[in-house]
């Protein structure tokens, strides 16, 4: 979790929001509180130059409010660059609800959260993230139109996770092409860490291709379910990062690429769904490069979900969703090449392209 890698002790106590380590010129941060439902949420709107800030809602039992704030700031910023690099007319936003999704998520709490989203008049549009399901977005939809990722029955594009997984699979293939000269993943040893909505769908793609897949999760029941469904192996060790593997696919929470893990990694490629995989973008991007590990930038390859929910706003169909998601392969290849030519990290290469699109739009205005 974020706590392990970000030292919150030294935060400037007189600037607890604008002085946050992860604060990066965010336009707006909204704290939502409701005693009756127990709702405690934070909505982060990072940037709306390209359009309304769209990003999912995460429900998680954070160790502290600092962690929740840090997470929403990091996640909302990531959304800005994800939409920019994918060519979508969306800004970056995200929300976190503090609490245990298994025991504290009630229909009343979700609706109250929806009312807070509604109060922002469309500057922020929500969707699902960790701890949320399509059914939760359907509940939010009953109180606000500013929600995506709703079910097909309610006129939405449905669960975005399989599309996210497909985009990650495309990005992973492009990274394999760059690193190994072939994008065929058959017999490649891939460790998938986190087999939730996206992780499971990624496992399905990988096992269809004949990759040798190991799965890891903190939820034993899920591990057994996914193992039985796709005939893959459960990782039984204690330190996934030190295992011999070709590809490491982080699909749980962020910041697993950090000071403690990079020097242990034996993978040649890192490509996964989790947002904010690098605890510190510049530093850890460079460290990966120095170790000869090819990193497929998370915000580039996990954009399938946002492509899927964007369809609800722009009214395009499944075929266009798949075409745009498949294109992640080409964009990833291009960015990996650019990074090589310019001798910069892959994260920097992706970031620069995204930033230039935002700057160009800002100058037009
Ligand atoms: N759902 C989407 O469409 C989408 C889109 C883009 C990015 N992402 C990102 O992908 C990641 C996964 O999303 P999801 O929708 O599958 O979430 P999810 O809640 O369905 O799954 C997360 C899984 O990670 C596991 N997990 C949590 N901590 C872990 C740990 N320390 N070690 C191993 N496993 C752990 C959980 O038990 C769960 O099975 C998140 O970082 C999310 O932000 C998701």
From TrEMBL:
A GO BP entry: amino acid metabolic process
Gene Ontology MF terms: nucleotide binding; oxidoreductase activity, acting on the CH-NH2 group of donors, NAD or NADP as acceptor
CDD domains: NAD_bind_Leu_Phe_Val_DH
InterPro entries cross-referenced by the UniProt entry: Aminoacid_DH-like_N_sf, Glu/Leu/Phe/Val/Trp_DH, Glu/Leu/Phe/Val/Trp_DH_C, Glu/Leu/Phe/Val/Trp_DH_dimer, Glu/Phe/Leu/Val/Trp_DH_bac/arc, NAD(P)-bd_dom_sf
Pfam families (UniProt xref): ELFV_dehydrog, ELFV_dehydrog_N
Catalytic residues identified in the record: 94 (proton donor/acceptor)
Residues the record lists as binding NAD(+): 194-199
Keywords: NAD, Nucleotide-binding, Oxidoreductase
Domain of life of the native organism: Bacteria
All residue ranges annotated as the Glutamate/phenylalanine/leucine/valine/L-tryptophan dehydrogenase C-terminal domain in the record: 158-365
Family: Belongs to the Glu/Leu/Phe/Val dehydrogenases family.
Protein's name according to its UniProt entry: Glutamate dehydrogenase/leucine dehydrogenase
Organism of this sequence: Marinirhabdus gelatinilytica
């Amino acid at each position: 979790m974020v706590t392990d890698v970000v030292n919150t002790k030294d935060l400037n106590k007189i600037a607890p929001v604008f002085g946050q380590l992860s604060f990066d010129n965010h336009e707006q941060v909204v704290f939502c509180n409701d005693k009756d439902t127990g709702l405690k949420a934070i909505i982060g709107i990072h940037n709306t130059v390209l359009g309304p800030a769209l990003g999912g809602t995460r429900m998680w039992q954070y160790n502290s409010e600092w962690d929740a704030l840090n997470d929403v700031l990091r996640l909302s910023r990531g959304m800005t660059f994800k939409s920019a690099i994918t060519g979508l007319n969306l800004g970056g936003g995200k929300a976190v609800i503090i609490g245990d999704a298994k025991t504290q998520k009630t229909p009343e709490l979700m609706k109250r959260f929806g009312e807070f989203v509604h109060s922002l008049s469309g500057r922020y549009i929500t969707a699902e993230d960790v701890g949320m399901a399509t059914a939760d977005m359907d509940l939010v939809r009953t109180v606000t139109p500013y929600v995506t990722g709703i079910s097909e029955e309610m006129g939405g594009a449905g669960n975005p996770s399989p599309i996210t997984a497909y985009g990650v699979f495309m990005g992973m293939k492009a990274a394999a092409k760059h690193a190994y000269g072939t994008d065929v993943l058959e017999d490649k040893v891939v460790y998938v860490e986190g087999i939730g909505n996206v992780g499971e769908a990624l496992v399905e793609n990988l096992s269809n291709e004949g990759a040798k897949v190991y799965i890891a999760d903190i939820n034993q029941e899920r591990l057994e379910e996914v193992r039985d469904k796709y005939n893959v192996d459960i990782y039984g060790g204690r330190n996934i990062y030190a295992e011999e593997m070709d590809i490491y696919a982080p699909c749980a929470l962020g910041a697993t690429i950090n000071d403690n893990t990079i020097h242990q990694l034996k993978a040649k490629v890192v490509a996964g769904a989790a947002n904010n995989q690098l605890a510190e973008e510049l530093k850890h991007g460079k460290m990966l490069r120095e170790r000869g590990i090819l990193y497929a930038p998370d915000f580039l390859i996990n954009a399938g979900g946002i492509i899927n929910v964007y369809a609800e706003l722009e009214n395009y169909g499944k075929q266009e969703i798949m075409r745009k998601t498949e294109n992640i392969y080409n964009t990833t290849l291009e960015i990996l090449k650019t990074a090589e030519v310019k001798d910069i990290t892959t994260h920097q290469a992706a970031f620069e392209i995204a930033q230039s699109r935002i700057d160009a739009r800002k100058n037009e205005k």
